[in-house]
Amino acid sequence: MFAAGIDIGGTFTKVAIISQKGRIAAKSLFETKDFGRFDLWVEKSLSVIKLLLDAKNIKKNEFAGIGIGAPGHIDSVNGVIHALVNIKGWNNVNLHDEFKMRMKAPVFVDNDANMMALGEYAYGAARGTKNAVCITLGTGVGSGLILEEKLYRGSFMAGGELGHMPINVNGPSCACGGKACVETYVGNKYIVGRVKRVLSRHPDSVLAKKFKGRFDEITPKDITAAANRKDRLAEMIWEETGKYLGVCLAGVVNLLDPEIIVIGGGVAKAGRLIFNPVRKTVRERVMQVYRHRVKIVPALLGNEGGIMGCAWQVFEKGRA
Ligand SMILES: [Zn+2]
Questions:
Q1: Which has the higher per-residue pLDDT, 91 or 196?
Q2: Phi and psi (nearest 5°) for 146?
Q3: Residue 316 located in a structural domain
Q4: How far does the centroid of ligand 1 lie from the alpha carbon of residue 269, in Å?
Q5: What pLDDT, on a 0 to 100 scale, did the predictor assign at position 36?
Q6: How far is ligand 1, taken at its centre, from the CA of residue 143, in Å?
Q7: Which domain CATH number covers 282?
């Protein structure tokens, strides 16, 4: 059997046809904003799915359905998008009905971070575990919880938002309306913001020299490159970032006692620079009984985690 996974991003929409074993048979991507009008975007997505199915000669009876992951607040029971991050004008649209009406196949809609977590759980780094916390570090901090082998959504389908766990009493205001959320310490722009604030005091650092007069162009990737050249300031920024995340995760470990914490997304590409301080901080802060038990590992599926989770959702729910 095969399923279609659709990952809606602020920039690109990714579509893939995935086998039950988790092999990507075909994939394609198009710019989301080119089809800004919701109905046009639905038409485009469906035409891409049909094209991919035809290209791989997949018959109707081999097609299990469509799984969709979207960045924002999603009612996964009814398949309704309440509001999306970075995409305007798609409020309260029923994605489930739109697709179901046209494709006549099962359709499942969920939050993209939840889908990434399911992907890693079904086919990636958290495979074979019962309790897993999966995090995507990027512009925002997305996450999904697998508890007792099930995706945990919470009472109002807004659970598992680890990015918005406060890690201080006072701190930066967050886009969610909260304060001192972990995202305001380890989200892309906040990491870069912390670098920019101290650069003028470190004129000899690799970053200050390279980006003289254009600090706004610095990205986490540049900080990683500088740290890999043993630039002390850049190393410190990653240590600090890892520590903030580690403090948050120590609380999460005490609360949920997961077997594994999977960390992916662009910022996780800093590798050991961020993983080492995360692991160290968790080890130091977590309740003694849990120490050394929980594994903290990089995601295995990279950018495909979301669409893999979407497909798995179709296979699992389709079976029930
Ligand atoms: Zn927040």
A1: 196
A2: -105, 115
A3: no
A4: 23
A5: 65
A6: 13
A7: 3.30.420.40
